[in-house]
Structure formats: structure tokens, C-alpha cells
Amino acid sequence: MSAQRIAVVGGGVVGVTTAWSLLRRGHSVDLYEREETAATGATASNAGLIVPGDSLVWGTPSAIGMLARSLLARKQSFIRVRAGAGPSLVPWGLRFLRECLPSRMRRNVRAAHALSSYSLDRLQELQAELGLDFSFEANGMAFLAGSPEHLAALAEERGQLAAAGERYESYAGARFTEVDPGFAAAATGLGGVLYTTGSAHGDARAFTLQLLQRAVDGGLTVHSATEVRAIESQARAVTGLVTPGGSRSFDAVVLAAGARTAELARTAGLRLPILPAKGYAATVPIRPGASVADVGGVDERAHVAFSRMGDALRLSSTAEFAGYDSGSNPGDYDSIRATGDRLFPGALDWAGAEFHVGWRPATPDGNPILGRTALRGLYVNSGHGHLGWTQAAGSAEIVADQIDGIEPAIDTQPYRTPRGRTRR
Q1: Cβ(90)–Cβ(273) under 8 Å?
Q2: Do residues 300 and 147 make contact, with C-beta atoms less than 8 angstroms apart?
Q3: On the CB side of 75, how many CA atoms lie within 13 Å of its CA?
């Protein structure tokens, strides 16, 4: 296919990876980012985990109870709803509840794992080619259980992933120090560890900024601090976009604006079931000489994910539906701090910690919306929820393939845009 002039809207890990994939195929690419710098928001506030071995969706039978406790009893839970979530939460929530049915959950997990596995392969190929420095370690991940029964339940939850080829090993708490001695302090309080080799971790922000620079060196044009206000179209085809500086013409536009994607899509008459799910994170310096695990993972007792990034530990938790509220208070990080101190007592310098908030773009079925839409020339790459870093490289290739008229390497039916619809 001949080279096109393409705009990518969104400077997070998904948008930048998409811009890179298109640029290397010979297209002329402009990247639009509303903030002063790229790689803010969810890209800077995730746990760093790249997790084919944990490609589970939020929509599970147990999620119904979590939502009920959050709404009715106002109790803290991993998934919670707050005032300000907005009227769009009602239809989204009804669809989410439907996706919690076991049969739908299994279908959604199958799709999430296929994309996650494909994406990790693409990321490793990209890293082999470019040699970026983003604390990348393909050393698996650990799920920390509170009891032997909890450990068995974690293994059962991942049975579908095991059937798809992911490998898991169960350890008594103390025995896992044979894999990673950095868990020595945590081991005495654990009921067991489920370990998978099929995952990795790395700093998504560092990756994104370095890849962006490579792309700029290769001809990418970046428009920072530039808000895209609308998508322009004529005769059911994209003609360009509108910024504060006026209209710009493009052959194609890719919406990769994370949790803001649905707002922007509405200007083109497209309704996408994407809502912001706020997550909290902390990046905490590791004290000199302190022992911290090299293997990342999730403390399933508190639903806190973590991974080491050089001389710091990143911890992240929570999916809070509160609209586009970016505020936080110290109590929002209590679970994160308690988990860090429980796992690695005395190792973390909280006085130097940086605290983050990011909106994860969530869909009811837990899978992203990828590729072409009913409007010719308009493409979507958004809705990855908590798996944006995991699925970025593969999603970028799928969208670039569709723009070039190439059949993607995996079945894209689960990610197609009929889940969004036009009003026209």
C-alpha cells in the first residue's frame, strides 16, 4: 500500500508504539499529545508488569460482589465506584455485569491472552532490534497467596491460561526464595507463591520516551501540549482533525488517546464503550544495600502489583470509577504502602517516593478496541484497561497491518469496533 499521511492521537505507550510501527512502514506520521510531555497518565502509573501469564479480565463472577460492596457498603475493594463516575457508567456497568458470566469471562480471557502473548513476542523483537534501556527483565512473575487454599484458588483461576500454554509452578512460601532470595523477608508470612515464567516487567515510561526519540530521529513529527478537539470527516471518510491552531488534513487518524478516546470518538459520531478507571501507584527508592525481589508480581492478599525498576520499586493498585477525577489523598495509597513494607521491611525510602494517578481505559469485556471503524480512515487503538503496557506492541502491529491492508497475525475478531457504533 502507498505511503499515507497519518495522525496518531495520544502520546502514551500505545500511541507512541503505534506511531513507530507506522513510521517504519514508510508512512508520514504526526503524533498529537495534549500534555507537555509524552508518557504521562497510565503509562507512568502502572506496575510495570508485562503479563501473558496474568491476562485475566476484570469481569469475573467475583467482581459482582466487589462492586456491590463498593456501592452499598462503601467498603474498600480492588474495583470500586465513586461519586462523579457519570451517567455513562450505567450502560457500561450493565454490559460489564453481563461479561461477568462464566462463559463470557472465558471467551474474554482467551482473547486477552492471545493478544498479550503476541504482544510480548513483538516487544522482545523490538528490544532485540533497538536495545532500549527500560529495566526490562523477562524473569516471570509471582502471585503471593495468603494460605495454601488461596494458592490453590489462584492456580485454578489461571487454569484457562495454563491450557493455552502458560506454565505455572506452586511453591510453599519459604521455598520461593530458591527462585528469588529477595522474597526472604516476605516468605514467612506467605501461604504460598504461584510462579509463571511467561511474563516480564519493565518501565513503560522509559520505554515510551526512548522509542519516541528514536521515532523523532526517524522523521516523526510531534505536537506536544496540543489538544485534538475534533475529528473531521466528509462522505463518511476522515479528512483530518481540529486543534486550537486550526484544521489539519490527514489520510488516516488513529485514536490512541487512552481514557480520552471515547470523548474524541464522539466528535466523529462514534460511540465507544471506554471509561476511565483510576489507578494509584507509587515509585519508591530502594535503600542502598537493601534486599528487594527481582521478580515482579502481585500480592493477591491486597491486590497490589509491584516490580523493580532499577534502584526503585513501583507498586500499583485499584480500579476506581470516578469519572475524570485525577485527585488523590494519602489514604488512597495506604494499601500500597502497607504492602511494600510487609514484603520488603525497611527496604523502601518512602520519604523519596513519587505518587501517581492514571486513568486506565476500560471496556466492559476487558479487551481493547482495535482497528478500522465505520468511518473510512478512522482507526482505534484503545481500551486496554490494566493491560496497556502488556498489549501495546502487538496492538500497534495489528492497527498498522489493517492500515496497510495486511491480514494480522492473530484473529482480531474479539477486538473489532462493532462494540462501538456510529450515530449517523
Answers
A1: no
A2: no
A3: 8
C-alpha–C-alpha distance, residues 252 and 259, integer Å: 21
The string of pLDDT tens digits covering residues 251-273 is: 999 999 999 999 999 999 999 99
d(CA 154, CA 379): 37
CA distance 136 to 397: 20
Q: What is the DSSP letter of 58?
A: S
For residue 187, give the C-alpha cell. 516468605
Write out the H or E segment, with its range, that includes residue 145: strand 141-145
Q: How confident is the model at residue 84 (pLDDT cuts 50, 70, 90)?
A: low
Whole-angstrom distance, CA of residue 280 vs CA of residue 358: 7
Say which residue the cell 504492602 belongs to: 339
Confidence of residue 80 (pLDDT cuts 50, 70, 90): confident
Residue 309 phi, psi (nearest 5): -125, 85
Residue 276 burial (CB < 10 Å; 0-12/13-18/19+)?
buried
Domains and CATH numbers, the chain: 5-43+206-273+366-422 (3.50.50.60), 61-100+136-199+275-362 (3.30.9.10)
DSSP assignment letter at 200 = E
Cell of 29: 506520521
**CA nearest neighbour of 316 among 295, 340, 345:** 340
> What's the grid cell of residue 35?
500534555
User: How many whole angstroms separate alpha carbon 236 and alpha carbon 239?
Assistant: 9
Backbone angles phi, psi at 159, to 5 degrees: -60, -40
Residue-wise DSSP of 268-335: TTEE---EEEEEEEEEEEBPTT----SSEEEETTTTEEEEEETTEEEEEEEEEEBTB-----GGGGHH
